[in-house]
């Protein structure tokens, strides 16, 4: 602020002109109007830069550059404030976007990151500490940390009245009572229930998931053969459990690694691919941990030690690559082995397969050949029937006779039950 005031007073460097004003018979020296100061600030401080930055963000169709709620509110407020020159601001943003598109991809990413970091510091999220100045809440926390509760993303603690940001009581902090602790628990539970994702994003994800799995839901889409819950025919289950997957099953493996590992045939094909790349120990470790979780309790301890000796011990025959944090956590858990002793290691290995091996599996000849083969089988025409009109009429007559006989049998059974009951 002192630098800005100095620049305003310096007339030689383009500051605000300070002049003497006549008022009737007297003169008032060193006069400046508020309108002149406002005009100087608008001209020299580039206050439309945040608006240009937010406009650039809206022009780029990238998920990581979408505006947050508070940024959208700021953009609407700036649009109202700069209504007269908004077209000029929008043209500036378009020009900057065109210049950025001509740059290399790496340079563009670096500039985007730098610009994002700059505005995160100078226009922080509401409720966060402003690092560019001595924030009043930070001063309060330093002076009396026991009385002041830090707000999370602008959500205050409704259980306590907020003290004045200027006045700090000289009395020492009292010992918290049971009621204070209960209020703090309620506040923390409220924070745990907060959703980090916007409802629109959740709705889009749910709609995408529903559309993707629509044809795989037998209750929504008609499938052939029909599901056992409708027709009491187990052919559908037999086909789903067979090692010869259909085109739908093979196509479903491409949705995610979870879907591929759910299917026994998908696991076999993925294991076959990993064996061809000499990295099957990751999947074998993951499957061994899954098997251990389903074992009886008395077998868990011994099975946990066997997994350690096979995959994680020094000189293990099928050693896997774990980070130091997961390895230390797993070794600590094995002092008292349980079903979830390998949870950290299993999650780490799963993420490795998901980010590396799974993507290569989808591009491999094993998966592509299987997918094409199933498409050819599905697209083959059905053989023509040799039935004649006479045989069709005979089959229809037999079907009607069978239905009539079945109805008579059910009627007789029902009559017999009523007679017995009476």
UniProtKB/TrEMBL annotation:
Can the keyword DNA damage be found in this entry's annotation? no
All residue ranges annotated as the RGS domain in the record: 256-371
Hydrolase is among the record's keywords = no
User: Which Gene Ontology terms cover its molecular function?
Assistant: GTPase activator activity
Which keywords does UniProt give here? Signal transduction inhibitor
Against Pfam families, the record matches this protein to: G-gamma (PF00631), RGS (PF00615), RGS_DHEX (PF18148)
Enumerate composition-biased segments (Low complexity): 160-172
**InterPro entries to which the protein is assigned, alphabetical:** DEP_dom, G-protein_gamma-like_dom, GGL_sf, RGS, RGS6/7/9/11, RGS6/7/9/11_DHEX_sf, RGS_DHEX, RGS_sf
Q: Where is this region: Disordered?
A: 147-180
Q: Which residues form the signal peptide?
A: none
| Domain (DEP): residue spans on this chain | 12-49
According to the UniProt entry, the coiled-coil residues are none
Give the UniProt record's GO annotations in the biological process aspect: G protein-coupled receptor signaling pathway; intracellular signal transduction; negative regulation of signal transduction; regulation of G protein-coupled receptor signaling pathway
State the GO CC annotations: cytoplasm; neuron projection
Query: Which protein, by its recorded name, is this?
Result: Regulator of G protein signaling 6
């Amino acid at each position: 602020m002192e630098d800005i005031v100095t620049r305003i007073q310096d007339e030689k460097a383009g500051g605000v002109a300070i002049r003497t004003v006549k008022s009737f018979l007297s003169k008032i020296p060193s006069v400046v109007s508020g309108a002149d100061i406002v005009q100087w600030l608008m001209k020299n401080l580039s206050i439309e830069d945040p608006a240009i930055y937010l406009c650039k963000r809206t022009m780029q169709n990238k998920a990581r550059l979408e505006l947050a709620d508070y940024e959208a509110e700021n953009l609407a407020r700036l649009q109202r404030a700069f209504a007269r020159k908004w077209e000029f601001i929008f043209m500036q943003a378009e020009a900057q976007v065109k210049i950025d598109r001509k740059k290399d991809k790496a340079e563009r990413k670096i500039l985007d990151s730098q610009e994002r970091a700059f505005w995160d510091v100078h226009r922080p999220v509401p409720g966060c500490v402003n690092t560019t100045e001595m924030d009043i809440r930070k001063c309060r926390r330093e002076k009396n940390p026991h009385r002041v509760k830090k707000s999370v993303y602008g959500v205050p603690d409704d259980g306590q009245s907020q003290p004045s940001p200027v006045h700090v009581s000289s009395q020492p902090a009292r010992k918290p009572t049971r009621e204070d602790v209960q209020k703090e628990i309620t506040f923390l539970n409220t924070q745990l229930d907060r959703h980090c994702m916007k409802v629109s994003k959740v709705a889009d994800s749910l709609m995408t998931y529903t559309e993707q799995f629509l044809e795989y839901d037998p209750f929504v889409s008609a499938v052939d053969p029909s599901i056992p819950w409708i027709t009491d025919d187990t052919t559908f289950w037999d086909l789903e459990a067979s090692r010869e997957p259909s085109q739908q099953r093979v196509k479903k493996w491409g949705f995610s690694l979870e879907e591929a590992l759910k299917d026994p045939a998908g696991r076999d094909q993925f294991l076959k691919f990993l064996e061809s790349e000499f990295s099957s120990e990751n999947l074998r470790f993951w499957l061994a941990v899954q098997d251990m979780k389903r074992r009886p309790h008395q077998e868990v301890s011994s099975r946990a030690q066997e997994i350690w000796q096979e995959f994680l011990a020094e000189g293990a025959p099928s050693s896997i690559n774990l980070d130091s944090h997961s390895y230390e956590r797993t070794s600590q858990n094995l002092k008292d082995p349980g079903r979830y002793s390998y949870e950290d290691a299993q999650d780490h290995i799963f993420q490795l397969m998901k980010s590396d091996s799974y993507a290569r599996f989808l591009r491999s000849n094993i998966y592509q050949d299987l997918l094409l083969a199933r498409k050819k089988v599905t697209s083959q025409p059905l053989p023509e029937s040799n039935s004649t009109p006479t045989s069709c009429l005979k089959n229809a007559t037999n079907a009607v006779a069978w239905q009539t006989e079945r109805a008579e049998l059910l009627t007789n059974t029902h009559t017999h039950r009523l007679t017995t009951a009476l």
